[in-house]
Design goal:
Helices cover 23% and strands 32% of the residues. It is of the alpha/beta class. The strands form two sheets. Strands 2-1-3-4-11-10-9-6-7 form a nine-stranded mixed β-sheet. The longest helix is centred in the last third of the chain and has 15 residues.
């Protein structure tokens, strides 16, 4: 059944497509899968779920001109949501794969946790830094690396793992969640609903 809200879900090797797709189905969202053999056109918001290494995800998204297509669409105003590594590739690069460029859509870099057990696995508290209606709550993380935006104003949520770190970004039409909303229960579902509401106005 087609709904008023439709999104393009970017299908890449190693992505977390399945669980994100199930969340969107629960929210009654129509999903169109796109990829290097079916490039998005920019007429729907883009969601890119990524699981795995920064370099491997960038290699996958570069197939068939997909990275250039996504970059151009986002620069032209298409709403974008990146999840986990899908958020990290928004930045210029990552310590995980030196020499591999990210999309460069949000100024900054991705660095490795230096304290505590790595990777961080489990629930962590989110604090909203933008006062924009996104409520604080607890979300589920699985990450060894985190983004460091050049502009602190791009940080949507911060969290604490032996030190404060950027847990989500929001810059114009770009949003990124380092955590997994699809694994974050009622809070994650509500967060996705909020993002979908904002980009479907």
């Amino acid at each position: 059944m087609k709904t008023e809200i439709e999104v393009d879900l970017v299908n890449i090797d190693g992505g977390n497509k399945g669980s994100v797709l199930r969340l969107l189905e629960r929210l009654n969202v129509s999903v169109n899968e796109v990829g290097f053999d079916n490039l998005p056109k920019g007429n729907r918001p883009l969601i890119l779920p990524g699981v795995g290494a920064f370099g491997a995800v960038m290699q996958s998204i570069e197939k068939g001109g997909l990275s250039q297509c996504v970059s151009q669409l986002v620069k032209s105003g298409t709403p974008y949501l990146g999840i986990c590594v899908g958020m990290q590739i928004l930045f210029d690069g990552s310590e995980e794969t030196p020499g591999v460029n990210g999309l460069g859509l949000v100024p900054g870099s991705v660095v490795r946790f230096l304290k505590g057990k790595v990777p961080q696995i489990g629930w962590n508290k989110l604090d909203n830094l933008q006062n924009n209606g996104y409520e604080p709550g607890y979300a589920y993380f699985v990450n060894s690396y985190y983004a460091v935006p050049t502009n602190s104003s791009d940080t949507l949520y911060s969290a604490d793992y032996y030190e404060r770190f950027c847990a989500a970004v929001q810059r114009d039409n770009i949003t990124g969640f380092q955590f997994h909303p699809e694994k974050s229960g009622a809070f994650g579902q509500k967060l996705m609903q909020r993002w979908l509401f904002d980009v479907s106005k």
